[in-house]
Amino acid sequence: VQLVESGGGLVQPGGSLRLSCTASGFAFSEYYMNWVRQPPGKGLEWVAGITSGGGFARDAGSVEGRVTISRDNTKHMLYLEMDDLKPEDTATYYCEKDGVRGQGTQVTVSS
What we know:
Layout (H helix, E strand, L loop, with lengths): L1 E5 L2 E3 L5 E8 L8 E6 L6 E6 L6 E3 L7 E6 L4 E6 L8 E7 L2 E2 L3 E5 L2
């Protein structure tokens, strides 16, 4: 299993980012996938999840209405579109499958 996240960066409050995760080494289209994050000095926090076929997605209350998780099974890609970013969204973001995460991508929200 290999998961490689990308797309993070420094963004001003109210801005948007699209994170991507490239998956390999497993049958991507058969698995529920998650985005999780780890704010500085804190533990992991679940952000959003999506069913194997992409037909049903959920997100955490802390990001409700501000994130959209999606996937492209033909490309083995997972995405997280984040809008109206807040300083408290600052974290390292990981895609996750059954407890396995990639190296993460850093998102910093600051003016």
